[in-house]
Amino acid sequence: xxxxxxxxxxxxxxxxxxxxxxxxxxxxxxxxxxxxxxxxxxxxxxxxxxxxxxxxxxxxxxxxxxxxxxxxxxxxxxxxxxxxxxxxxxxxxxxxxxxxxxxxxxxxxxxxxxxxxxxxxxxxxxxxxxxxxxxxxxxxxxxxxxxxxxxxxxxxxxxxxxxxxxxxxxxxxxxxxxxxxxxxxxxxxxxxxxxxxxxxxxxxxxxxxxxxxxxxxxxxxxxxxxxxxxxxxxxxxxxxxxxxxxxxxxxxxxxxxxxxxxxxxxxxxxxxxxxxxxxxxxxxxxxxxxxxxxxxxxxxxxxxxxxxxxxxxxxxxxxxxxxxxxxx
Length: 328
Known about the structure:
Layout (H helix, E strand, L loop, with lengths): L1 H6 L19 H22 L9 H27 L4 E2 L1 H12 L6 H13 L19 H10 L11 H4 L1 H4 L2 H8 L1 H20 L2 H27 L32 H6 L15 H11 L3 E2 L6 H7 L15
Antiparallel strand pairs: 1-2
Helix pairs in contact: 2-11, 3-4, 3-5, 3-11, 4-9, 10-11
């Protein structure tokens, strides 16, 4: 991915590290990761049981949706399109706001997240990709095991994307270094805030627990699985309107909940583009918000799709797709 490589300074000359397997994370880290995977299931079971009197209320679901949309766009616009791929430049208040919102997702610290994702683009579906779904064709249940690894299995392995090599530009930004160090406080706030809000609105402990489960645990779990689905499902199923060197694909039904991230084939074809749903009728709320930020002069130097550039990479078998018209 030469476009991505040009965005990282100094230039990276990397070879996949296949000499030895990555060492496992220490057990406390593995236990915490396992808790993140299991907790949403336990929360759903509690909400479906009669043990919690306030287990189902439309205000709780609405508040959870607001949290999901706000934090989710912090990941898709901030962590992904701004900090990883430099799809636009943000004024300092917007930069800080997006970094903090993304840090409420419990998907890891900002700089670590960016480093892992840049490594994914550097070695997509090859040795060195942190969450590649590919497996040797001779391996038993290889496809299924590859999907499981790309979805959650890779989380239990030690990271192999040193920020000094993959995110030196972020390490040079004092604001982002401070926010990266605030990962633990942000992780506490993202769960404590729904609990406190629930108690303030209902005046009951059970009301606080209910909103904690809806807008805290379940909201975090849903966003996790949607993000992980981009790593797994979007490299195995769906359409490939653009020619790439990998199996990245578009999955339209995930576009709304992923806030435009599931137009993954276009993203791998043009990593630095601010809009992933580059064709007409492809919903991309992240791009719509970036457009709004641009009009408010909060975002500048936005890299919008260009029809001539899209045409160069478009698969000839799909000539009828139309550009989205977002090019300024």
